[in-house]
C-alpha cells in the first residue's frame, strides 16, 4: 500500500494531535479541531481507510452518548537514525514516537557516507526483524553537520569529510522505499525536546547542543525555525575573535574552538602535561589521553583546573547566548549534550553571564536548564522530523 | 456601528489579501483562498454587510463569465502614530495602508505620556477633519521603547522617562473609541518594510533600526516575531564589553553606547574639541554643538575623522549582526534610520564584518541593504500593526 497521507490540513491536525497527545475520544477530538460531526466522521474515515488512524476501544463516558477512542494506527512505525561524530544510533518508534527498540554502535563517520548509510539501513533492518515489521512509515535522520534540508544532503563540514552534497535522504529512501527527512543534529534534538522533553511546555525555546560540535535549534511558535537557507542556529563557527585558537574548520576564534569538546580536551592535555592538574595528569598516565568525559569527571570531583576549563568554555558560550537571548527572547533555554555530571558547574557560569548582561525584558523570568532527555533527544527528534513530514497535508 | 471584524480565518485571509494586493476579481480571490463558489459568496456577503469590503467595478475578462473586482471598503481608515525621541508623526491611511494625509511636529517625549498621547489624538482629529472622516477603524502606535504588547504599555526605558507602564493603548482607545495597538518602533518599522518596502519580497528578514536608540524587528514566515515576552530584537542594550562607555541606561558597554546617535555625537564633539577634524570644529563653531546629521554630512563630504567615527560604530554593529545572522539565517538584512547620506560608508563597513566572519550557509547570498522607506516605515508599519489586529478572526 502506498502511503498517501493526510489530504487536507484538518486531517494533518488530527494526526498530529493524536501523535502528541495519545489516544483521545472522538467527541473530544472533534471539539478540539472545531469540526462538525459529519465533517469529522468523513475525515476520520479517510484516515482510517489509509491505515493511519484506528479505534482503540470505548472512551470514558462524559454523560451523554458513549464515544470511542481514536489513536494513531498500530501499523504506523517510524525509523530514527542519529549520527554523531563517533556513534550511530537507530530506533523504531510507534505513531506517538515512543521508542519500541533501539540499537547503536561506535562508528567513524570519516569512513564516508556510503558505508554509514548502508550500516544504518542494516541496523534498521535488524530492528524491523526483531519486532516483525514489514515496512516503515518513514525515517528521520540527524547528521552532525549543516544540512541543506530541501536537498536532504549534508553541507561541507569538518566533522563529516566526504559527505558534502551526498544525497543522504534519497540514498536511504531508495533502500527502504519510504519517505525520509534529514536535518542537523541540533535541530533534530530541539524537535526531540519539543516532543518529549522540557520544551513540550513551551512554544518558543532555544535548544543549545554542546559536544564535539556546537549548534542551536530554534523552536518558534511550536515549530522548528530553519531560516532562509536551513542555516538558523549554526553558531559553532561564529568567530568570537579574529586571533583566537585555530578551529577544525580552518578559521580562528570560532565558538567551537573555545568551548567544543576538542578545545576542552586540548586545554586539559596542556594542563596535565604542564603539571597544573594532578587529577588530569593521573588520567593521562592511565589512559594515554583524555576525553571530554574525563575532564567533566575531574571537574565534578572538584579538580580546580578542570573546573576552570569548564567555566572558561561556559563563559564564552554564555557571551554568545546573551546576544541570542536578547535578540530572540525565548521562553526558556535548554542545554543538551553536556558531559555527564558537568551540568551544575556549566549552568552556574552560563547563568551568571546571561543574567548579568542581558536586557531585562528578555531574561526577567527566563529559565536556563539542562536537557533531561540526553541521547534520546536525537532519536525521538528524528522520529518527530519524519512524522511532521508524513503527517502534513499534501 | 460597532466593528465586529472577520468571523473566521477565511474572512481574515480575504481582508489581508485585499489589503496587501489591492483590488482583485472575485474569481481570482476565490481561487487564491481555495474556497468554493457558495462559501466565497457567503464570506464576502458577511464582510460587505459589515462595511469592510466593497465592489470596485467590473474585472478584466478572463474569457468566461465577467467577474467583478473587490477591495477593502472606502470607509476603512486607519490612524498611525509614530513617536520618536524628538518627533511626533501621525497619518491616516486607507484600507490598503496608503497614506492619505499626515502631520508631524517636534516634541519632547520627556514631557510625559499624558501630554503626548493628548497631542497625538488632537493631530489625528485635525487629519480626520481635513478629510471629513467621522470615525477611525483603528489606530497603530510606534513607541521608542520596549513595549509589553499584551498590556499595550511601554516598559521602563531611558528614552521615555515617566512612561513606564503608562497604558498608551487604553488611553488612546478611550479617547477615540476604536481598537488601538502599540509596539516598539523597530518592530513597527519592520512591519512597514514588510508591507511597503524591500521586505515585501521576503518571508524571513531582519530589520535593524539605527538612530538615537538601536533595535531590531524580526519577520519570520511573513509575520512579526515578538518572542516570549515581547522582547525579541531588543539589542540596543546588549553589553558588548564589561568596561565600555557609559550608556543612558546606566550600564556600560551597551551596543547603543558604541553606535547610537548619542555616542556618535559625543565622539565627534571630542574630535572637534581635540582639533582632530576641521570640518567638525567648524560646525561646532557655527552651531554651538553637533548632531548625528552633522557627523553624517562631514563623513559624506570626505572628512576622515567623521568617516572613522561612522566606521567604528558600524563595525560594532556588524559584530553583533554576525551572531544574529548566523543564528537566525534571514534572507536579507534591511537597515533603516541611518542619517541621510551616511549609507555607503556604513554599509561597506557592516558588510565587511558580516561577510568575513559569518558562517557560509547563513550569508552565502544574503544581501544587506538600506531601507528606502525612511520615516514612512513607522507610519505604514503602525497602520499595518492595527490592520493585522482588526483583520484577524475573533
TrEMBL record, chains A, B:
Belongs to the ROK (NagC/XylR) family. This is Sugar kinase of the NBD/HSP70 family, may contain an N-terminal HTH domain. InterPro entries: ATPase_NBD, ROK, WH-like_DNA-bd_sf, WH_DNA-bd_sf. The lineage of its organism: Bacteria, Bacillati, Actinomycetota, Actinomycetes, Micromonosporales. One of its GO terms (molecular function) is kinase activity. It comes from the Bacteria. Keywords: Kinase, Transferase. Transmembrane segments: none annotated.
Amino acid at each position: 500500500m502506498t502511503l498517501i497521507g493526510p489530504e487536507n490540513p484538518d486531517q494533518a491536525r488530527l494526526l498530529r494531535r493524536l501523535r502528541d497527545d495519545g489516544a483521545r475520544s472522538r467527541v473530544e477530538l472533534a471539539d478540539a479541531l472545531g469540526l462538525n460531526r459529519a465533517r469529522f466522521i468523513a475525515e476520520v474515515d479517510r484516515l482510517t481507510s489509509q491505515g493511519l488512524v484506528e479505534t482503540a476501544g470505548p472512551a470514558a463516558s462524559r454523560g451523554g452518548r458513549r464515544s470511542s477512542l481514536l489513536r494513531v494506527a498500530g501499523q504506523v512505525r517510524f525509523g530514527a537514525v542519529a549520527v554523531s561524530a563517533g556513534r550511530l544510533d537507530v530506533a523504531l518508534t510507534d505513531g506517538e514516537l515512543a521508542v519500541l527498540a533501539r540499537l547503536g554502535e561506535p562508528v567513524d563517520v570519516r569512513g564516508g557516507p556510503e558505508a554509514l548509510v548502508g550500516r544504518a539501513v542494516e541496523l534498521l533492518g535488524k530492528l524491523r526483524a526483531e519486532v516483525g515489521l514489514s515496512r516503515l512509515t518513514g525515517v528521520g535522520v540527524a547528521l552532525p553537520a549543516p544540512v541543506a534540508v530541501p536537498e536532504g544532503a549534508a553541507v561541507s563540514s569538518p566533522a563529516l569529510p566526504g559527505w558534502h552534497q551526498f544525497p543522504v535522504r534519497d540514498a536511504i529512501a531508495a533502500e527502504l522505499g519510504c519517505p525520509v527527512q534529514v536535518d542537523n543534529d541540533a535541530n533534530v534534538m530541539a524537535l526531540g525536546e519539543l516532543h518529549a522533553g522540557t520544551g513540550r511546555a513551551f512554544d518558543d525555546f532555544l535548544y543549545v547542543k554542546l559536544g564535539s560540535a556546537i549548534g542551536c535549534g530554534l523552536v518558534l511558535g511550536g515549530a522548528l525555525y530553519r531560516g532562509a537557507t536551513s542555516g538558523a542556529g549554526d553558531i559553532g563557527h561564529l568567530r568570537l575573535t579574529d586571533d583566537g585558537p585555530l578551529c577544525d574548520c580552518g578559521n580562528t576564534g570560532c565558538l567551537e574552538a573555545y568551548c567544543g569538546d576538542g578545545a576542552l580536551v586540548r586545554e586539559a592535555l596542556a594542563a596535565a602535561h604542564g603539571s597544573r592538574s594532578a587529577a588530569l595528569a593521573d588520567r593521562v598516565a592511565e589512559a594515554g589521553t583524555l576525553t571530554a568525559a574525563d575532564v567533566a569527571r575531574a571537574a565534578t570531583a572538584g579538580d580546580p583546573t578542570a573546573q576552570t576549563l569548564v567555566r572558561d568554555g561556559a563563559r564564552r558560550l554564555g557571551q554568545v547566548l546573551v546576544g541570542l537571548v536578547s535578540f530572540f527572547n525565548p521562553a526558556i533555554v535548554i542545554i543538551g549534550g553536556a558531559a555527564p555530571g558537568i551540568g551544575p558547574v556549566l549552568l552556574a557560569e552560563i547563568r551568571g553571564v546571561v543574567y548579568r548582561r542581558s536586557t531585562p525584558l528578555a531574561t526577567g523570568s527566563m529559565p536556563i536548564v539542562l536537557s533531561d532527555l540526553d541521547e534520546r533527544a536525537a532519536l525521538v527528534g528524528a522520529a518527530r522530523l519524519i512524522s511532521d513530514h508524513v503527517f502534513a497535508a499534501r
